[in-house]
């Protein structure tokens, strides 16, 4: 018989992995609520153009990482590589472009054809937020503060730093881009092959190249700061003042350019030294042309996405949920009685497991290990008298309780 494994770059989420995952997404929901964000879910696949146009044909994601396929009707569809494009598409599809701002978050699987390694998968999960209709840098600061609160709530406040940069407005970026291209052209023979091809289509990406030979050229490259126009500089200064007002600490890092094409002004990453090369756990920025690309009006937005697997690897392991009560029926008649007792206990909100597998000792070992607070023994003799033997596992005290009283006795025990 064939033994299947999960496809390369994917993994099953179970046991502790699943608990870590749920802690990350659950904490996100708690914190986002404090900021008035509500959840959206968009389809896991979209018309390929939704991504190709919005992320930029030259971005790594579009040029080499997308899972694109033709369906039986001949449509070109793509498994979503990220969440923002789908959200912008949904805003327009649902005619919400006049109902601004929209503060939304999402969570779910994303798909990128990448070389699998630590912290890098082909199916991974993101939790992200978008503020659609972000009229000022104050909004950028607010959604960054939300990211900070989320990471602090996960216990990661000390492990992460916020790196911040500005890409300015389009005019500033174009002027700088021209200067960069001129500079790199002069030194084209010293550029890596990858960067030589970036020179035409996306020269900004050269700035975050990991190749040694490219990095050597960066020190003398034209600095963006010299090309920021007044408007962009004002935006940048207001952003930093607002971050300070929200109590968000950051370091400026001019190397942060982000991989996708749609950003302007604010870009940022929360990074850690604890995950090796895959140190960015949460990243985002301001984007202004995306809603227009989807057929809506020009709406400025600010958003970010966090990698759930990377956060899950950093947090402390959450403890497993345990049942409050374990029922141990002895014999067939007791088993059926256990069904009716468990029903009233569960109706009252208690978590109940019915232990039937293995001998008594094995069952008791499993229950003690599970951390349940009470065990409920049920034998033929008990059935005849309509009682159960209730053991408090912490004190090991045991008492006989009429079946009719079990719910109230256990509810009282839970309350105390
Ligand atoms: P990287 O530089 O690591 O490739 P990216 O710029 O492609 O990241 P984004 O598109 O900004 O990443 O996605 C936001 C976050 O999603 C990342 O910071 C990371 O935590 C997570 N992420 C991105 N790609 C993967 C992947 N293949 N596997 C696991 N997590 C990922
Ligand atoms: Mg990437």
Automatic annotation (TrEMBL):
Reactions catalysed, as given in the entry? tRNA(His) + L-histidine + ATP = L-histidyl-tRNA(His) + AMP + diphosphate + H(+)
Q: Where can this protein be found?
A: Cytoplasm
- Positions binding L-histidine in this chain are 82-84, 112, 126, 130, 258, 262-263
User: InterPro entries this protein is in?
Assistant: aa-tRNA-synth_II, aa-tRNA-synth_II/BPL/LPL, Anticodon-bd, Anticodon-bd_dom_sf, His-tRNA-ligase, HisRS-like_core, HisRS/HisZ, HisRS_anticodon
Record EC number: 6.1.1.21
Which residue range or ranges hold the Aminoacyl-transfer RNA synthetases class-II family profile domain?
A: 8-329
Kindly provide the name given to this protein in its UniProt entry: Histidine--tRNA ligase
Q: Which organism is it from?
A: Bombella intestini
């Amino acid at each position: 018989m064939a033994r299947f494994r999960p496809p390369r770059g994917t993994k099953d989420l179970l046991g502790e992995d699943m608990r870590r995952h749920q802690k990350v997404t659950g904490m996100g929901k708690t914190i986002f609520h404090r900021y008035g964000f509500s959840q959206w879910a968009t389809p896991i696949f979209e018309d390929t153009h939704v991504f190709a146009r919005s992320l930029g044909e030259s971005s790594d994601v579009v040029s080499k990482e997308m899972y694109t396929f033709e369906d039986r009707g001949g449509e070109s569809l793509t498994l979503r590589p990220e969440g923002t494009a789908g959200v912008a598409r949904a805003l327009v599809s649902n005619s919400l472009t006049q109902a601004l701002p929209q503060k939304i978050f999402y969570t779910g699987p994303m798909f990128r054809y990448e070389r699998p390694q630590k912290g890098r998968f082909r199916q991974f999960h993101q939790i992200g937020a978008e503020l659609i209709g972000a009229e000022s840098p104050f909004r950028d600061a607010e959604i960054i503060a939300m990211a900070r609160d989320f990471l602090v709530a996960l216990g990661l406040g000390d492990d992460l730093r916020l790196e911040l940069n500005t890409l300015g407005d389009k005019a500033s970026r174009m002027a700088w881009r021209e200067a960069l291209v001129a500079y790199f052209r002069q030194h084209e023979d010293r550029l890596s092959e990858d960067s030589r091809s970036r020179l035409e289509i996306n020269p900004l990406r050269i700035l975050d190249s990991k190749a040694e030979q490219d990095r050597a050229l960066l020190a003398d490259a034209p600095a963006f700061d010299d090309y920021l126009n007044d408007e962009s500089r004002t935006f940048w200064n207001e952003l930093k003042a607002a971050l300070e007002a929200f109590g968000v600490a950051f370091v400026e890092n001019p190397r942060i350019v982000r991989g996708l094409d749609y950003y302007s002004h604010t870009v940022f990453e929360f990074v850690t030294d604890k995950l090796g090369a895959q140190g960015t756990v949460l990243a985002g920025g301001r984007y202004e042309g995306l809603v227009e690309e989807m057929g809506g009006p020009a709406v400025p937005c600010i958003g970010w996405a966090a990698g759930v697997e990377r956060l899950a690897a950093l947090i402390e392991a959450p403890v497993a949920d345990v049942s409050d009560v374990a029922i141990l029926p002895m014999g067939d008649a007791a088993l059926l009685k256990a069904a009716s007792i468990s029903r009233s206990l569960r109706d009252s909100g208690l978590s109940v497991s019915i232990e039937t597998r293995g001998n008594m000792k094995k069952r008791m070992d499993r229950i003690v290990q599970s951390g349940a607070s009470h065990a409920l023994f049920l034998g033929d003799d008990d059935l005849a008298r309509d009682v159960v033997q209730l053991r408090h596992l912490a004190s090991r005290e045991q008492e006989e309780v009429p079946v009719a009283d079990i719910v109230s006795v256990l509810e009282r025990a839970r309350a105390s």
